[in-house]
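User: quick one, sequence for these tokens?
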């Protein structure tokens, strides 16, 4: 099976590049994958049947056009995986339904798996406390103990307070902040054990990938 994995940005690319072989086995043995980063999440076009605007680079902004292109390949060995953050959206199920509905605008529908990190991918790092503490042995345990897994509570901010011992974050989506996110992701993901992660949204991602290869 070959997986085309669409993600929001560099952080997700960094993590998945590290852990995919734990989930699906060594690359090329039974499965292959390509991970494609975008410039943020973007938003779904009002008209899902139209081409994306010129210059659109957000994942959701180009998603309808990309799914139509994958569908035209008519490859039974292809699975398209769409991974996005829930962020502040109030209802995961409604958000997922809006993603699934994009397939209604594909003349040929590719096999797709839609998965949502709740609230953000950083919840996956907090779901593997052992990996986090191996990467950051002096992390603030008091901050970690206050975190409720996969809650919408400012996950990224909590992680930074725990591992960096500071409350002042770089400006939102600034190059400095994006590099900090990438660096923390790289440090923690190299220690992650995909079988022991306590994040429900990570477990859904992992188990969904595995089910697709057996269908």
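Assistant:
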């Amino acid at each position: 099976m070959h997986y085309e994995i669409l993600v929001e940005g560099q952080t997700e690319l960094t993590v998945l590049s590290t852990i995919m072989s734990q989930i699906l086995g060594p690359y090329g043995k039974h499965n292959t994958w390509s991970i494609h980063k975008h410039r943020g999440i973007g938003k779904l076009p009002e008209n899902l049947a139209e081409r994306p605007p010129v210059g659109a680079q957000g994942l959701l902004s180009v998603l309808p056009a990309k799914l139509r292109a994958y569908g035209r390949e008519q490859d039974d060995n292809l699975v398209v995986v769409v991974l996005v953050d829930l962020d502040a959206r109030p209802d995961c199920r409604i958000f997922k339904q809006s993603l699934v509905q994009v397939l209604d605008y594909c003349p040929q529908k590719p096999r797709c798996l839609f998965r949502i990190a709740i609230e953000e991918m950083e919840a996956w790092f907090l779901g593997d406390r052992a990996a986090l503490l191996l990467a950051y042995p002096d992390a603030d345990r008091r901050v970690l103990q206050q975190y409720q897994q996969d809650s919408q509570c400012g996950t990224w901010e909590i992680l930074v307070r725990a591992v960096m011992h500071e409350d002042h974050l770089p400006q939102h989506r600034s190059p400095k902040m994006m590099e900090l996110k990438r660096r923390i992701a790289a440090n923690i993901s190299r220690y992650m054990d995909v079988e022991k992660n306590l994040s429900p949204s990570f477990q859904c991602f992992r188990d969904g990938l595995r089910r697709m290869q057996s269908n």
